[in-house]
Amino acid sequence: MKQFDFKKIREFREAAELTQEALAISMSTPENRVHVQQVSEWERSTNGGLTVRSLTKLCEALGKTADDFFVEN
Fold first, then answer.
1. What domains can you pick out in the chain, each with its CATH number?
2. How far apart are CA 41 and CA 33, in angstroms?
3. Where would I find the beta strands (DSSP E) of the chain?
4. How confident is the model over 2-50, as pLDDT tens digits?
5. Distance from CA of residue 29 to its chain's centroid?
6. Whole-prediction pTM
């Protein structure tokens, strides 16, 4: 069974040479602002607040698919 690997967020962000702030800005929309603290919490997996909408924006910002964030247990 696969599970979401929150560490991949940081791995992919750093590979894309983005700061947490730059990633948050690129994920933000006028209707939904992403804060740096949210990105930090996701990377540390201290917050389960990563929604499907946020994951979709994260994938778009990093050029990844949702499957890229899942690993085998």
1. 2-64 (1.10.260.40)
2. 15
3. 2-4, 70-72
4. 999 999 999 999 999 999 999 999 999 999 999 999 999 999 986 568 8
5. 15
6. 0.90
